[in-house]
Amino acid sequence: MSSVKEGFLIFLGHRVSTLRHERGMSQLELAIEAGVSKTYLSDLERGKRNPSAFLLRRLALALRVDPGRLLEGL
Question: Which of 20, 23, 45, 70 is the most exposed, fewest CB within 10 Å of its CB?
Answer without folding.
Answer: 23
